[in-house]
Amino acid sequence: xxxxxxxxxxxxxxxxxxxxxxxxxxxxxxxxxxxxxxxxxxxxxxxxxxxxxxxxxxxxxxxxxxxxxxxxxxxxxxxxxxxxxxxxxxxxxxxxxxxxxxxxxxxxxxxxxxxxxxxxxxxxxxxxxxxxxxxxxxxxxxxxxxxxxxxxxxxxxxxxxxxxxxxxxxxxxxxxxxxxxxxxxxxxxxxxxxxxxxxxxxxxxxxxxxxxxxxxxxxxxxxxxxxxxxxxxxxxxxxxxxxxxxxxxxxxxxxxxxxxxxxxxxxxxxxxxxxxxxxxx
Length: 281
Description:
Rossmann fold; Helicase, Ruva Protein, domain 3; methyltransferase; rRNA_Ade_diMease-like_C; Ribosomal RNA small subunit methyltransferase A; RNA binding
């Protein structure tokens, strides 16, 4: 869908892009094609999309996928999506707030045995992380996620230990799959143009790390506490963040084979899993 086509579609339906919803509509066919190729939709693929906007990606996916289930918060886009998706009977739009929807109850009944579930979205930048984890923690059998995010967020998603971008988001997504940046996207690919660069990131959930935490909630409590005060040593950050005695924390950190004087950004995902398991003993 070109910029001219988007303008005409919006004019015809009396719709304007809502800044409060982070609406920046994709108008670059090459970027659209790149996302579709990354999803690899086929006759056994069910796609969950959040924020379909004007339906350009939804329609492109529906041409090749078995089914597309899209969640759109902005009900004023209904006439636009009705028009764009009219040729695609396998595309369904649910008008609701993704963060308030029971995703498992919505999507699971639409999956048949042997289906492959992929999450694909041009995520609103102001709620990128909540939506991403809403999906990844839903209990749905997500095989892959292909998401457009702000470039700085992509930097954090793919960051490795030791760098300034490595943090809670890095550990959170890398625990759930193999993460890689596919390509960057300039502001000119959207209408209206955002004030930041974007990037498309893939999370291959079928290639998640073999090491799993005994208690995942405990793991991310530890991760959030460790990064809560990045300048502090690990033992000080954990003692403050978890409200536990410093000496007890030191003993647990040492028992996990980690230097208490290290800082959170020096720990690998495996280090965090060992540490969380040790702290739950």
